[in-house]
Amino acid sequence: MRNKCIRNLAFHQKRPTTMHQDTQKWLTVITVLVVSLSKSCILGAPQVPCFFIFGDSLADNGNNNLLGTLAKVNYAPYGIDYPGGVPTGRFSNGKTTVDVLAEFLGFEIPIPPFATTIGQDTVKGLNYASDGAAGIRAETGSNLGGHISLDHQLQNHQITILRIASILRTNKQQTLQYLNKCLYSVGMGNNDYINNYFTPQFFPTSKRYTPEQYASVLIDQYTRQILTLYNQYGARKVVLVGLGLIGCTPNAISKANGTACVDELNSAAQIFNQKLVSLVNQLNTNLTNAKFIYVNSTGMSSGDPTSVGFKVLNVGCCPVDNVGQCIRS
Predict the structure, then answer these.
(1) pLDDT tens for residues 126-160?
(2) CB 67 within 8 A of CB 137
(3) What pTM, to 2 d.p., does this model score?
(4) Alpha carbon distance 95, 83 (integer Å)
(5) Dist CA 219 CA 229 (whole Å)
(6) In this structure, what DSSP letter does residue 79 have?
(7) What local confidence, expressed as pLDDT, does residue 164 receive?
(8) Contact between residue 95 and residue 82 where contact means Cβ atoms under 8 Å apart
(9) Is residue 44 left, alpha or beta, with left meaning phi > 0 and alpha meaning psi from -120 to 50?
(10) Around Cβ 328, how many Cβ atoms within 10 Å?
(11) Are the beta carbons of 249 and 316 closer than 8 angstroms?
């Protein structure tokens, strides 16, 4: 039965091209992880009772819309390929990776944002991610205005847990047992470089630390935050998403004097990723009643861009403003 569920979730699609194959591979791995850790599989039902998402602009689906911040994308051309063609607060032309993963897991609708969701929908999971400004470090992104750091997102999750206990009418132990069954996606760190380390006009971190030292400082704090999710909030199935090619964003490309990507940013991100892999291995060794999986975002996006139709590689998908976001269309 489990294998049948996996097939239904993962393989009813046309054969993808190389870069899409890598993305689908990781989504399939995560789905297999969830199903293998579940005691049963019911066709037509989500593979987990709830899905909680912590992250930045790669995952946000509207939490920043109500913030006083420049990191806000509730305007066109964002959302032009999303169902209905309207901007939702996603830092994307269409669905995000966590939207697609939720579909793989069997959820009928995307996991809703924490900022605008109350009531029964809370029980199925929430998205705490914050556009452009969220980081592992509390100050990251503050140059843009209001922001929801990972520590703040964890505080929001604590509020959610109290709401779930009230809705389900469960005590603390019963609530934690429910949360043990959920999937947690955590993807942080991109902005700790883009809107902290590599913005020395606002932050001193690049003067205090070498890239190697800074990655260690970030991982030390990240470790404490992940352990909070495990120890206090019952997380037992955790996806940790590595940093992507941050030197290849439209904002980075716009400052690269015609080159396709900024190697300095990508190199720093890879130092962080190497340490994150070590952290995932350490967590799996020490916390045997949980499962942590590392998602290689760089590997997913390192194929030949021309194979999926990209023809111009040294110009972003849209003209950007002074904070790196698409200019309103």
Answers:
(1) 999 998 679 999 999 999 999 999 999 999 999 99
(2) no
(3) 0.86
(4) 8
(5) 15
(6) T
(7) 97
(8) yes
(9) left
(10) 12
(11) yes
